[in-house]
Amino acid sequence: MQVWKDYQAQHKDRFLNELLELLRIPSVSADSRHNEDTKNCAEAVKQRLVEAGADKVEVCPTAGHPIVYGEKIIDPKLPTVLVYGHYDVQPPDPLNLWDSPPFEPVIKDGKIFARGSADDKGQFYMHVKAFETMFNTNTLPCNVKFMIEGEEEVGSGNLGKFLSENKDRLKADVVLISDTAMISLDTPSLDTGLRGLAYMEVEVTGPNRDLHSGVYGGAVANPATILAKMIASLHDENNHITIPGFYDGVVELTDEERKALNSAPFDEADYKKDLGVDELWGEKGYSTFERTGTRPTCEVNGIWGGYTGEGAKTVLPSQAFAKISMRLVPGQDWEKISDLFAKHFVAIAPKSVRVKVTPHHGGAPYVTPTDSIAFKAASEAINATFGKQPIPVRGGGSIPIVALFEKILGLKTVLMGFGLDSDNLHSPNEKYGLDNYYKGIETIPYFHKYFAELSGK
Amino acid sequence: MQVWKDYQAQHKDRFLNELLELLRIPSVSADSRHNEDTKNCAEAVKQRLVEAGADKVEVCPTAGHPIVYGEKIIDPKLPTVLVYGHYDVQPPDPLNLWDSPPFEPVIKDGKIFARGSADDKGQFYMHVKAFETMFNTNTLPCNVKFMIEGEEEVGSGNLGKFLSENKDRLKADVVLISDTAMISLDTPSLDTGLRGLAYMEVEVTGPNRDLHSGVYGGAVANPATILAKMIASLHDENNHITIPGFYDGVVELTDEERKALNSAPFDEADYKKDLGVDELWGEKGYSTFERTGTRPTCEVNGIWGGYTGEGAKTVLPSQAFAKISMRLVPGQDWEKISDLFAKHFVAIAPKSVRVKVTPHHGGAPYVTPTDSIAFKAASEAINATFGKQPIPVRGGGSIPIVALFEKILGLKTVLMGFGLDSDNLHSPNEKYGLDNYYKGIETIPYFHKYFAELSGK
After folding, report:
1. Where is the Peptidase M20 dimerisation domain (chains A, B) (predicted)?
2. How many other C-beta atoms are found inside a 10 Å radius of the C-beta of residue B439?
């Protein structure tokens, strides 16, 4: 609508500067040294919601990082959209690989480079600005509620309790989230599903102290070697995961679903070039889209043990460690998978070492219905601003709480992401396109408009 | 001899305090941040040699850390003993596992706890004090030369050049080294051989940046997983090393040699208890003594990649690294083995990653003759102070330059170590027994006495 276009054109620069300010706050939820920053970020989000026109804005404490809530109820009889996002970000390590400091946003080639620019500050803030647009132009077509949390990157451990204790306050007709990617601005897409997650940490202990590799080498099991053997055994020669029971209940796609999924444009040469790899890798019998969207995985996120400093140290380490996470698909229960992993990892350890497995966190996979009013509203909104219908795709990432919304609030979720896979989420030089940011702010009001109309309330 | 006993009893405390001062200098040769400390340590050693009575004492610069030289020529016609030792120490990491700071020596339960206490400051300094004893009591039976270097823990890269350029200055009849262990003070032993070493660093690179393990996981090779598979493949199910050609030329022991080696007292239950392991591990078909003394090994000394900080980061790392070293036995050439390893490690890498192998350093294995005058002198010296003949054993460690002495100076080496395997060499809480220290100082003069007598010069 012209009124939205005009308002947004007029406040374009402020919309950007406000985001840059948020990006300067290092709200790293995984690192307790940043607890104060995370708290300050929550306060900043609260302030922005108030300025945008939201009521009852509040920083709600939890056992971990707080959740920011705000709402605008224009008419209880109208449908209500619950917007979810997160203001916490991933750790920036390894810092030396950033071209500019992660918390000093830089705009280059039309992109904002900063940790959190795409995941998720840049994306949830589009909703704040879209809401401001509708509110200040008196065109808000429905009720809106905001729930912006601070623990998404560490598993949203305290959100379930918050949902259960605030069912009335969070009453809504749909959850709307922008925390995923589309194929490109030329080829808009909508996520129809997300993978679940089970994140584990393992500790392998051999001798009770680091040993001289000459005096003891050859006679005592080296925990780094044993850990390597254990990790190596988690995939077979076809890159199937070997944990007993891991695939039980996994829902295979129908031929139609596979066909639809693989119909999305994909250029393997470009994909490899962008990643700098000569050859792709993955489970035998599946395409790249299927491997990242519809199949479970088991990845080493980190591994360490022994001497990792400068030069040489001839030590036989006492311990070796790894962070290992599994992406899960419909049919898999993350708690059951965590148990299966722990049992298996202990079972395959030789008697010469001791193994400890600690589950970090997890979340259930989710598939969203494509025949719902909300999904149609999202498709039409994208069509209205992109000029074409979005392609339905399966996202490989995980937003553990999407399943919680359904379980606790009984709400379906629409995943309307405006990022790109190449935004370097969780990586150095994370970026978010200015066009993606503005296009999101432009598109979101149409979702509210169509959702209200289609709801016919 | 009584005169030695009296002198040493009189100066007992000073002998100890001087060692403690040396131990307070963090001469970590592998860490360039300690270059100044290493230099200061060399100067301190020089000062001590001068005080002990040595002539022509000099800190000789090299391309790396300096070598301290000193000598006492009482009569060119008498035999000359070249004492070798090293004043550099291993890095103290992991610091958090030390009960007391590594460079603030503490005496507890009759042992000196400090990095370098046994390897090798405590052991080479016994020779300085033994020399002082003989010199100040006018009982020096032969000429003595000292060569104390500062790069033993990083492969003695500059010593070969020094030997070649100082052949005359280093002219001697035998090399005497205390940098190894004996079974115990009740069961003295003499090393008859040392293993060689080939130390490598490997780097496995997958994608050109850390990736989101959800967005890309399952479709791109994870370098940490690939590195684990490559390391796992280095040993087969019998713990034989799988590198093609690795065992070529390895000299197998005769049945007699195996019998003699395994005749040394060994209590597997105590050994496991000391290490805190339920089960030993090693190459099928060999005893623990054989595994550590006579068989080559391949050990992971360090491994790292991805996110190793607090909490969880769902990253698919761009790179993974490992430090891997091989202990070598007679018949193996460390440079050839380094090449074989590098070729093999590159060869087994899948096309989905790139592999870089960097050799750190190495050294040849060594077997010392047991029928030489020098070995007899060492045996008799131990017999004189311990009251029993030492058991000949094969040491598992490496002193790369022992082979260099033979090659460049044409000298055989006697390995008269007074440490214990349980001294935590290269580990936290390294220690050296006060009894071992004083027993060494007491025993060494007898070596010079008997060596001079048996040489009959």
Report:
1. 192-351
2. 19
The whole-angstrom separation of Cα B86 and Cα B186 is 27
Whole-prediction pTM: 0.82
Structure token digits, residue B39: 């230099």
Query: Model confidence at A85, in pLDDT bands (50, 70, 90)?
Result: very high
Q: Is the pLDDT of residue A396 over 80?
A: no
Q: What is the ipTM of this complex?
A: 0.82
Instruction: Pick B292's closest partner by Cβ from A217, A276, A310.
Output: A217
Rounded Cα distance, A105 and A24, in Å? 7
Q: For position B363, what pLDDT does the model report?
A: 85
Question: Which residues of A fall within a CB distance of 8 Å from B199?
Answer: 312, 314
Summarised one tens digit per residue, pLDDT across range A204-253 is 999 999 998 988 999 999 999 999 999 999 999 999 999 999 999 998 98
Task: Using DSSP bridges, classify how beta strands B319-328 and B297-306 pair: parallel, antiparallel or unpaired.
Answer: antiparallel
A352 to B281: CB separation less than 8 angstroms, yes or no: yes
> Do the beta carbons of residue B153 and residue B370 sit within 8 Å?
no
B211: nearest CA partner in chain A:
A427
Residues of A in contact with B397 (CB under 8 A): 212, 214-215
Do B299 and A316 make contact, defined as CB atoms within 8 angstroms? yes
In the structure, what pLDDT confidence band is assigned to residue B457 with cuts at 50, 70 and 90?
low
Is the pLDDT higher at B402 or at B451? B451
Mean pLDDT score, A421-430: 91
Dihedral over Cα of A339, A345, A351, A353: its sign: negative
- From chain A, pick out residues whose CB is under 8 angstroms from the CB of B154: 311-312
Question: Mutation test of the interface with chain B: which of A179, A210, A327, A429, choosing the one with the most B Cβ atoms within 10 A?
Answer: A210
Query: Closest chain B residue to A291 measured between Cα atoms?
Result: B218
Find tokens 């006060």 and name the residue.
B434
Residues in chain A: 457
Least confident of A60-64, A110-114, B404-408: B404-408
Least confident of B4-18, B237-251, B392-406: B392-406
pLDDT of residue A457: 57
